[in-house]
Protein 1
Amino acid sequence: MEIATSRPGRLSLTIFFWLLVAFLYVPIAFLALFSFNDGDPSFPLSGFTTHWYGDVFANRVLMSSLGRSASVATASSLIGVTLGVLMSFALLRRRFFGKPAVSALVFSPLVIPYLVFGISLLLLFALVDKLLADWFGVYIGLGLHAIVIGHVVVTLPYTILTILPLLERLSISLEEAAKDLGANPQETFRRVTLPLLTPALVSAFLIAFTLSFDEYAIASFLAGSEQTWPVYLFAQLRVPSLLPQLIAVSSVVFIASMLLILSAEIGRRIAERRYGREFSAQGLASSR
Amino acid sequence: MTDMDHFLARRLNRRGFMRMAGVTTVGAAVLAACKKAENVGGTATATGAGAHPPIAEEPGKLQVLDWSGYGNGDYYPDKERLGLWQQYADETGDTPQFTLFANDDAAFTKAATGSVKFDVVHPCGYKYKDWVDLGAVQPWDTSLIPNFPALNPKLEQSGIVDGKQYFIPLDWGFIAPIVNLDHVDVKEETFGILFDDRYEGKISWVDTSNMMYIGGLFLGVTDPFNMTDEELTEVRDFLISKKHLVKFLWNQSYDFWLSFKKEEVWIGYAWPDTVGYADAEGMNYLYMEPKEGRVSWVCGMGLAADTSNYRHSHAYVDSWASTKAAEFLLAWYYYGHTNTKADLSVVSPGVVAALGLDDPTVLDPPRAIPESFIPRRDLYQQYWSEVLAS
Amino acid sequence: MTTADMTASRTSWKRRERRTTAGLLSAPMLWLALFFVAPVLYVAAYSIGAIKLFPTDAGVISFEDWNHFLRGGSVYMGLFWKSIRISLTVSVVVVVLAYPIGYFLALCVRKMKYVLLLVVIVPFLTSFLLRVLAWKVILGDRGVVNSLLFSLHVRSPDDPVSWLLYSQFAVMLVLAYVWVPFVALPIFVSLDNLDRSLLEASSDLGAGRWRTFWRVTLPLSAPGVVAAFVFVFIPTIGEFVTPLLVGGPSGYLFGNAIQDLFTRGTDWQSGSVLAMFLLIVVAGLMALFGRFVQVRSVATD
């Protein structure tokens, strides 16, 4: 692109790029390095060991917090994807009064500070608990269910943003073609729309899962007695005694989440490219 | 001919959805009403052991609202259990569930807002009245606590509020400055060392509104726990002016200890556990007896007013009141315990002497000032927030 | 099918369509109404005293707290401006760092464009707390930087560089580190969508590369830059986790005050005032800059 940059300009941009990438990854690399260090995380290194990783598995509190985060993330992602599909259909394929307002409402969790949102849910649950206790003698309290509810709200915009583009590309003429060929609506949805949407659904699920798994602010207000992984991690960050174990877990979690995101992204692109090519309106017309 | 929309209409018809929602709500309400009837019948007045069902009928899964390191295994994974609640587990076969709080204010807020359910709570003396006033706790039946007679009667009296034994005091200790003598030159033992300009960036305060009364104590107000508005303003401004000396505010004592051990900070607001660790590490430290007097605290167990684990809770407190628990606290936290029969040889004689662990009179004036009920706690909190925000 | 049949089925289709629209919308909207709109309204009600924490207090609606906060009597307003100042600094730094990244990927790289973009973005999508942990390890008095300085004998172990951690510097550094990857995206998208022929035209008209950049590229990419700025500025105003971990006493920010008011004391009315204020500021900023932030076009490419 000679118009955009000169040769030295290009060189300096390249150097800057890789320096910044290094800056982004070096702290992560340090974490990985120290996870094998037989001692405190500081230089000079004390010797190679993998026993921190073993200690992690023995740490029941840590492991159970990871498990809880996984359940919360799964539940909220499943609900989030379901609601996201419904909303995407409504936004894309239906006309209704107040669509811009609804659209704004649905996407506004993207900008609300999680601090304020977490607090607002805390207040809501305090009220509901009080009412339930006074009227029905039932106590629910805070806990994982509250976190799931909060996470569904904040992941909904992301799931819609993932599903909507693919839904848009799926030509409506596909569904009409299926209908013309005699398929009833259940069949159309099950055998045509849903399979075509699957890559976006999976991608949306993975993104929502990652978001929920790592989410601290909302969980910190709603956790109750059962700590999720970020809440546990945060509590431990202020007590550096278990630091090496946390570092060991962090390397694993890092790599896992990076792989998840990469696969979600790659899968989504493959799907879009493939389906975009095969099922665009032109393609359909030309195949007839 | 049916089409996609008809299909959707059948699945997601709004009226159908509303009908379903209505049915479930009514159903839930009916079930809940039945449950409430049960509850109302079951909740007896909290006097007389006969009014409470036998322990086998209680749900178990005791909910304990406590400090970190007091049983949930944060610091001493197995020792905490063995020392503090193994007796309880052996007697009842139940495993307690812990909800943790960072400090008394956080615990109280959690309970006040109903965001946590608990059977047993572990606040400190100056907060007892707040809990009683909130209506969140009920008096204990000491006849159900076999270890109660072994507890120091004078200290147990401090758990009496409005004439009833609402709290069972168990652990006690001090608040005083600890200094690293290798780096700090102590001219006079006073709380003022926490505000000493010579040691900028080497000081740590606690991250609670307690700093307000510490400031008041140093500035010489009449009653640090009941300061006037002018005094509070004076303390606030004083703390703001000294804030730049502080490296960090600690939330957990162990957090402070690790920093003190690494000599990142040389001076700090400290509890006795730091003393024990410093002693074991062979550090050259001084746990001051300031001229203003150390501040002493006694913390105890409270029983939730609406608990359904009445007998379980008493068994838990009994486990905490045992000599085993006392020796755990002494050996690992260097805290005093109200059980007079505890074997003090688990602690080095030097520490026993330094902290007066064998002599509860060390908790009284003039050597120490008991941490007392603060009537205007919210105001203290507000002024402290302003210190933080400046 | 006769024409009559087709018309009939079309009208009934439209009727059914309206019903199913309601069906599609009901679940998500109900969820949002119950768990997003209602809680926020509840906070607003709290802030004016319409609802109290302890029912025993008089339920008098009062704007006293709002008054006190806005009229300069409160120390929290100063804290708010401190947070704005820090957010502003971080946002500017982040955008300045991210712009060359976007430029490089959009205009200088051909084949590996999206892969490299992913390389930049992926850290953002991994655990936030862990990335802060990494910096705690690096910046501490006995951390990576300082132990390196000790071993090189630049500083002695008694005299570490202590302003690296527990300071406003630490807060800004960590926030910038966290947000740079994310911010590169909208800048990249706007530069990627740039019409190359404009650049060619500019060059044909005799403009040098710098001039082309200043007069053509930068103005055209402005929407992306503004979007990027907004993407980092708005979330960081309410930031409380980073200050809590690396801020020390001087790194105490507006978000921390809000959190403390709700978790330490029972003065939830003051807390609600601050929380609502933050929300209003954020909403206002979004309304102001909303046209630059086209959510869909930024997220997809």
Note: Residues 1-49 of chain B have pLDDT under 50 and may be disordered.
Protein 2
Amino acid sequence: MTIVHHPTDELLGSFAAGNLDQATQLVIAAHVSMCPCCQRLVSAFEQLGGTLLEAVDPVGLAPDAFDAAMWRIERQFEGRPGSARSRSGDDARLPRVLDYYDIGPVRWVAPGVSLRPIVLPGGGRARAFLLKSAPGTRMLEHTHTDTELTCVLEGSFSHQGGHFGPGDFDLGDEAVDHQPVVGPDGPCLCLVAMTGKLRINGLLGRLIEPFIRL
Amino acid sequence: MRKGRDDTPWLLALVRERWRSVNKPTTKMEWADLIAAIALREDQKAYRQLFDFFAPRIKGYLIRTGSSRAEAEEIAQDALIAVWRKADKFDPGTTGAAAWIFTISRNLRIDAVRRGRRSDQMLKEIEAEYVPETSESLDAAIVQGQDALRVDAALSGLSAEQSEVIRLSFIEQRPHAEIAALLGIPLGTVKSRIRLAMNRLRDLLDDIK
């Protein structure tokens, strides 16, 4: 697997600092989990985080904080760990970053294109979903009102920005006008974080836009 | 680069003073030793040293990133409890001790935000932010260990003014314009300092291969 398209340094930095909304964080995490070179950069950012943490102005804790911590350690107050979902069939191939999330039912959004929402308990502005498109599907030329982050999990697609295969990351925003075409090699499964809406270009687009439920 | 050319002297003094106030009681190598002492023999004295240094800094970091004081206190304590519990999982070969404690604190902060600041839950198991899916990742972990040392060396080479900008941008995620206003320096200077630090980080990773 050769990953060609990566998130920007800024996005990876925000990811490492823990400052992304949940949907965005999930898509970046999916990419990073498949991309050794971004793992390296993220870990360099975490190193930076550690160095900065050492330099932050300290704010004193309550006088009994240490004793309280020891008390909890000795009594083994364990939390309830989040339980990983066990998945079977095709879902067993989903990246493990999704293990702690529920995935909603399949919904058809257009011919050959279906969507499954990822349930995000933290909410947030962006939505996350799995988007599956049949081989050879031609998406309508569209623009985004806000941003759309995509990580390819299986299959591939191409648009003016290049060819995107498993692990590749794609960012669409209002500046990008594109018409993705799914590769012939099999269905294309993507993890997508999206804020705002799609705007489909052209007269046909304006006519059918109300019927595309994305 | 001519350092601090565009800074007012009082600000420079303030930043330098702040930088010096970081009186680390031990070196980084010793942080790792303290964590090992906890893992090997539940060494409470070693733990106390880590607690006294890191807990107040985690609290400070959380307050800077928007947590309330009460929440920051709680998460700082949770983070140090996690340090105790996970001490045997710490691998000094792949990551620095401070970076490891940073990621624990960061994950707890993310978790707290997602729980909607409900405080009725006990310490939750902290999961890694991502789980490597590739076989190459094992090699990557070894390389990351080398990176950690280099990143550290490069960062200590940054000037106090640069570090301040990086801290405000990276840790506090303040917009560039706000950083410029806060430090009283031109926007272009903020951007160039951030770019310089990024390039430094990139160069560092590029030349290992």
Note: Chain A touches chain B through 60 residues (CB under 8 Å).
